[in-house]
Amino acid sequence: MNLDRRKLPDSDFALPNRRMYPIPDQLHAHLAIDEAKKWASVAERKKIAKAISKRYPDLKPEASGLAAMQDGPPPEPSASRRTYRNNSTPGMDKIVTGR
Q: pTM, whole model, 2 decimals?
């Protein structure tokens, strides 16, 4: 679906003041939930979940899960903390850390 955000009314956004997370249909509501899990703050997630639950009651369980999230996705481990298997030498399958 080709969506022109400029033509959507503010009511078609989960965060209408900022015109973020368009939810004109259920497909976009699902996309908004997925994006909010990655990028939205805790307060924004709660507002997005409330807007989606109100507009699409059948998506309430998914939206409730979004609102319940307290933190964002786990951060990537730093390069010095990554672990990997060293299989370059035959018989060597021990775990090697970057320390």
A: 0.69
